[in-house]
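EI: anyone free to look at a 97-residue chain?
SC: sure, send it
EI:
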Amino acid sequence: MWVFVVIAFACLGLVGLERAFVLATGISTNRVPGPRSLIVLVVMGIVVLTMVFVSGLAVNADSTAWALTAGAVSFLVMFPGGYVYDHFYGQELRRGV
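SC: here you go
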């Protein structure tokens, strides 16, 4: 049950970060991602969902090492993936794609 509290605070934190970014920069975009940034989003989503599935299988098989590995892979995919997404999305915004 405690996980719902964590999720609620994480959502509030994300909304707060987005609001702080808008106030600091004056930039707010809600455009749909262009083709390259959309591909990055889809690939990251597939990898993370696959790792969630693998982690669930590993937990059911009592394999803590594989569950931690799946979590680490998801974590490591999100950082460079987020950077690449931001880079491509920024280019697409500047070019008007």
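EI: The mean pLDDT is 86.
SC: 👍
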